[in-house]
Amino acid sequence: AQKITQTQPGMFVQEKEAVTLDCTYDTSDQSYGLFWYKQPSSGEMIFLIYQGSYDEQNATEGRYSLNFQKARKSANLVISASQLGDSAMYFCAMREVSTNAGKSTFGDGTTLTVKP
Amino acid sequence: EAQVTQNPRYLITVTGKKLTVTCSQNMNHEYMSWYRQDPGLGLRQIYYSMNVEVTDKGDVPEGYKVSRKEKRNFPLILESPSPNQTSLYFCASSLGGTGTRGARQPQHFGDGTRLSIL
After folding, report:
1. B58 to chain A: which residues are within 8 Å by CB?
2. What are the backbone angles phi and psi of residue B58, rounded to the nearest 5°?
3. CA separation for the pair A77, A17 (Å, rounded)
4. Is the Cβ pair B100, A105 closer than 8 Å?
5. B27: contact with A, CB 8 A cutoff
6. Does the N terminus or the C terminus of chain A have fewer Cβ atoms within 10 A?
7. How far, in whole angstroms, is CA B7 from its chain's centroid?
């Protein structure tokens, strides 16, 4: 069974600094997709970035990048140059090929607060 | 505008009174899914659908029903709601495809439905 662990319930970062949000996962699949979503206080879920298990390069999307270490089963999200609008809850999620990508598992989330 | 629409956004009801939360997407997505979000527990998958007439259980299906008669709609039915089903519910959709193609698709979420069962 797939499992996502986010060990940081809350994180603080100073505006304009970089921050890393941790995500480790457990799967017996060789092929899977990893995702990060942002949930602001308004409640909607926003897709940020995707990493495939067979992708050789770490994913990047603007200020977001993934530090993907397959052997360690970790996919940490790095946010560079934090902005006040980055304050939100962040979820790591996974879809496995073995379940035909139907099942989707989320971590418990990390609440990020950006300080001015 | 591409979107996933859930209704109602808020609902307060009583134990045992059947209710349906509707979900509709206009992106022609094959895959749809329902989640519940409870404090400290992240999102937990209730049911998902790979395509029309194809549904399967997620991690917490007890007390819920779904149907997928049309590609765009995926209603969530609570036949006899109980207080432990008080939660924030999200519907999501994505492009489909089994295997590797499906596993790389990000999900698009509705704005959520906050249910309170008294």
Report:
1. 103-104
2. -95, -145
3. 14
4. no
5. no
6. C
7. 11
